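Quick start: read one record
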Amino acid sequence: MLKKNARWLIPVGAALLCAAALLWCWTPADYISAGCQLSRNAAWISVDWTSYPVDAEAVRRLAESAAARRMTTLFPFASYIRQDGSFSPSYTHARAFVDTFRQYNQEIDLLAWIGLPLANERHIGVKGWVDLSSPETRRQVVAFVVQLVNEAGFDGVHLNAETVQNNDADFLLLLDEIRQAIGADKIISVAGSHWIPESINAIPVFTDFRWTGVYYREVAKRVDQIAVMLYDSQAFAPALYRLWVREEVRGLQRNLDGADVELLIGLSVSQEETPSHHPAVETLANGLAGVCAGKGEVSLTRGIAVYADWEFSAADQAVWLAWQR
């Protein structure tokens, strides 16, 4: 009789567990809360700035817009390694761009964005060809970084190596070699992968697909800045994306606690629909809401990195200004 009377505990317990799960998952859409504003922001900007003759008036507008949006770093796309092993000559006007930009703003860091499409068969849809296990390939990359930074006057380099697997020792070696070559006074920035907990990484199908906290700390030892690309989440609902960003930010901050690195959260404003990126879901507003929910009162997150500035719309500007207010 006692067991029969106690059966009500099962549905009540299940309901309480569901309620607790829903409460934990709930991530509000608010991104205008006090204390959420960040002042060290960045943006990936177009190759047009370095590949075409400089339009001084356009550069002035860029400098003023970046300053107004509290940008402290810009990543102008400069070049990438082509399949024949050469670097694309899309940086022919980089020196003129840097010099012209400096006429209007001397405070914002300009980091040469270099693409390294790595050979990594595990990442479906990404067909790269750069093999960093080759000492000759690494020497080639290092030499190009030194040449570009010095000749064009960049403040440093931003490496977008897609896609670096977790525990990739060759990528760490490349970062060490770049640091030795360009010195401590130049900035080394990298685009970071999604963070994955060690418990998930232990599952065979997910092993080393994304970066764990251990690998993030190893990268952080070698660079000055990490811009984590928190988009291409495959989230199909706004609330799910906000939750995912919240947990990514929490995990990143927890694992990088004490690291001497500037952490930027990369959010997308791209309108391109792909299997992993749904523009109506991965909006700037949803991303900011996730960051606000995840960063906490004492935050290692220093700013937002916008991908990509050439798709930054009037609607995005309204969201940005409301967030910064």
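The first helix runs from residue 2 to 5.
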